[in-house]
Amino acid sequence: MKNLVLLVLILLIVQVNGDVYKIELTWDQFAAECNGILSGSIDNQIGMVQGVNEEKALSGMIRSLGEDQMSFEAGQTFEIDSENGYFSFWIRDKFSDDDLNPDMKSLAEAKPIVKIWRGSNLIDQIAVPEGEGLVCKVFNLDLESGEIDQELRYYPKSRMIIGMIVDCVNGEGLSDVSVSITDDMGKTKVFNAGISGVFTYPCEIGKYSLAFSKPGYIGLEVPVEMGIDEAPREVVIAMSEEVKNYRIVLTWGSRPRDLDAHLSGPNPDGGNFHIWWQDHYPMDGKDFLDRDDRSSYGHETITIYKPAQGTYQYSVYDYSHGGSKRSKGLERSGARVEIYGEKRLLKSFNVPAGRGDCWHVFKIDESHNIIPINAIDYVRDDKSIHSN
Questions:
Q1: What DSSP state is assigned to residue 134?
Q2: How far apart are CA 64 and CA 175, in angstroms?
Q3: Which of 12, 44, 244, 327 has the fewest C-beta atoms lying within 10 Å of its C-beta?
Q4: Which domains, from first to last, does the chain contain?
Q5: What is the pLDDT of residues 298-314, one digit of tens each?
Q6: pLDDT tens track for 210-239
Q7: How far is CA 283 from the centre of its chain?
Q8: What is the mean pLDDT of residues 53-81?
Q9: How far apart are CA 201 and CA 214, in angstroms?
């Protein structure tokens, strides 16, 4: 009887341990000093551990087992002991924030390799490619779906805001844009973005308010938060010229890769229309859908050049996770919608929490009032949006 009980306990332990994810990072220690960063959220709680030390976060559900050094390789090991959650894994040069290592190639020259295990099964192995930067994002892991999304991208440093300012219609970088960044202590720094509209701003953990202005364009403010993971924050600012017509601009983060804007409403010539990536709906030589992006960040822009009497509906479809009722891709996208008109910003919406593949954002009624909806749900497919 005792042997039977012992066998059952062993089987239970094996079953539990089989669900634990293990992440192994190795690199050539003679080329660089690397540090792995595992960050994530479980049930709306956020946590982070670094590989240089033994430490735990999120009630012990994510762990760093510390660092091992062998003859030619150094290594760090991490564990995730949870049934749900969303995680990101980064590698950075240990001296990336100390201005002691100006060599942007050293991290890649260390040839980092990341192995991801579930129990005793190796489910992915990622060799970090050549590139320049002291920080590299490696992958995202969604425990609910089991999806590992490789997102290999280098950055100059951690703890920085990286932005690109573009014209929302043609997608070209805007020069001579004034950027004002205010931290949560009220301290403000003002500078001009570069010729291509790119800017960088080193920052500490905290909340920041970014304001953008340029003559002939409508000013815009965007909040950005530097979290405890200290990972670089990227923002795309799609500015609109001063227009009287309604102009709707969608931007989002690096994931999902493809979000699609959908607008339905009354056709000035009679009937109704549905604008989306398959139908730009030309009128008087112009497309209502000015720009369709399919490779992360956006932006997508729709301009209503000739408003008609009736009700308009605007939604955002997560094409990358289309058909998934339980996806949190939209919730995690950082998507933002701005509505312009009358030469000013009329309304802004940030994507809410929720599961599904469609974000119903707002309506415009017959009196031209903007009616918020701001809810995520599931639609049968992208053709059926606004079918009811």
A1: S
A2: 44
A3: 44
A4: 19-155 (2.60.60.30), 159-241 (2.60.40.1120), 243-388 (2.60.60.30)
A5: 788 888 877 778 899 99
A6: 999 999 999 999 999 999 899 999 999 999
A7: 34
A8: 90
A9: 19
